[in-house]
Amino acid sequence: MKRTGRGRSAGTGALCVLAASVLWGTTGTAATFAPDVGPLAIGAVAMGLGGLLQALIAAPQIRRHTSRLRDRRGTVLLGAVSVAVYPLAFYSSMHLAGVAVGTVVSIGTAPLASTLIERVVDGRRLTRRWMLAAALGLLGTALLCVAEATQDTDGTGRTSMAGTLLGIGLGLIAAATYALYSWAAHRLITRQIPSRAAMGAVFGLGGLLLVPVLLATGAPLLASWSNASVGAYMALVPMLAGYVLFGWGLAHVPASTATTLSLLEPAVAAVLAVLVVGEFLPTAGWMGIALVIACLAVLTTPTPTRHPRGQMRNNSVDHDSGPPWKAAGVAPGGEHRTRHT
């Protein structure tokens, strides 16, 4: 029963990450309703205000676990700096290199960065199932990139080569910082710190670091009700609600699995661009979405495990060994910690 409970808990964690990815996928469409707001302001209001609100909500849990957070202050600081850098690099990457390229580089390479961190720091082994899922997800995201870049080409040469290269570089920084704060939060949670306290501390401190950027660049957010509404939505829904869900997910899955599951984000963004903004998505784009869905199916579908003969028939399915995060391992007591969030 305990192993079955952990398997269900891991599945719930995956669903939380997928739900967060759906919310994150709405940011690109939301930003189109505030075209006068620059990328730094969008990033600062989204992660800055959202992080501060997350810390405010989690204040009782943060206060209760202050000593443990202080003991892990290096991890908290690393996560907070990464939270502050990520949105500035991500939205600037999309602004310079285009939405398609910026999103693919930032989100598409994050699983690789996350896996490298876990491999080097934690010694976590890679499973063939994760590698298959990552390959499908990266290929699907690349197809989405090609499809969107093709339809955005209008022969005007608006984006210079230098700007594109800078945007790609910023996208790589965004991917690295996304992987770093995901790893930092997961590490805190697996060290007996509840997800709400861990995420609140990391994102609250990161939000404080973004306040000067918001003060310097956020004037356009107050220029109209539509701009203010976009800023409020970005902070409250994708960032506050999204990262609360992401924290719950990180309580039960490794950061590498979580960042791979978040490949759903560019697929959601592409579908919303078609349905809401009115963009056209070529066949290659729909093929990319199908591959991303296949990636998620590989990661989240449990598989039966063979057992020696003579074992009871009703125990023939090992719920704890199917998904790759089980092979990677989840810290004991995950279900208990999540109840405190």
Describe the structure.
With 341 residues, the protein is an all-alpha fold. Helix content is 76%, strand content 0%. It has 17 helices and no strands. Helix 1 packs across helix 14 (264-277) and helix 3 (39-57) packs antiparallel against helix 6 (73-97). The longest helix has 29 residues, at 161-189. The protein is globular. The protein starts with a helix and ends with a helix. The model is unreliable at 154-158 and 310-341 (pLDDT under 50).
Structure, briefly:
The protein contains 17 helices and no strands.
Q: Per DSSP, what share of the residues sits in E-state strands of 2 or more residues? A: under 5%
Query: Structural class, from secondary structure content?
Result: mainly alpha
Question: What is the H/E string?
Answer: HHHHHHHHHHHHHHHHH
How would you sum up the global shape?
Answer: globular
List how many beta strands DSSP finds.
0
Main features:
disordered C terminus; 17 helices; mainly alpha; 341 residues
Chain-wise SSE layout:
Elements: H1 2-24, H2 27-31, H3 39-57, H4 59-64, H5 66-71, H6 73-97, H7 99-108, H8 110-122, H9 128-152, H10 161-189, H11 195-217, H12 225-250, H13 255-261, H14 264-277, H15 283-300, H16 324-328, H17 334-339
Helix pairs in contact: 1-12, 1-14, 3-6, 3-11, 3-12, 6-7, 6-10, 6-11, 7-9, 7-10, 8-10, 8-13, 9-15, 10-11, 10-13, 11-12
